[in-house]
Amino acid sequence: MEPDRTFATPTDHARCPCGSGGAYGECCGPLLAGRAAPTAVQLMRSRYTAFVVGDAAYLLATWHPSTRPERLDLDPELRWRSLEVVRTERGGPLDREGVVEFAARYAHGAERGVQRESSRFVRDDRWRYLDAVD
């Protein structure tokens, strides 16, 4: 399924929305195209990018089947502005689980806000988002 084109998709040479400082075509672009993320934090960054570009199919594909919703409707009026990775716990290439704490800033019309979350990730054949913890 193609991403919803009501969302803006960066060019390969543009700065990646995830805030890594890399180019989209070398950072999250390949992951959204199907390459497996080597770490939990890279998966989390690519999932943030998927929210930015409106790629609900990628979000569902990288969500663990035990907690994945049947469908995901993204609001094209919600604009994700920036991502800050606050903390990581495990989640490396040899780990089976990891936690990534982040703060994602957004705008929805005149409203501005920050979503703060500690996300749990698990790895079987590839890293997948499991759920959020307090």
From TrEMBL:
A Pfam entry, by short name: SEC-C
Species per Swiss-Prot/TrEMBL record: Agromyces binzhouensis
SUPFAM superfamilies in UniProt: NTF2-like (SSF54427)
Span of the signal peptide: none
YchJ-like middle NTF2-like domain boundaries: 39-132
UniProt name for this protein: YchJ-like middle NTF2-like domain-containing protein
InterPro entries: NTF2-like_dom_sf (IPR032710), SEC_C_motif (IPR004027), YchJ-like_M (IPR048469)
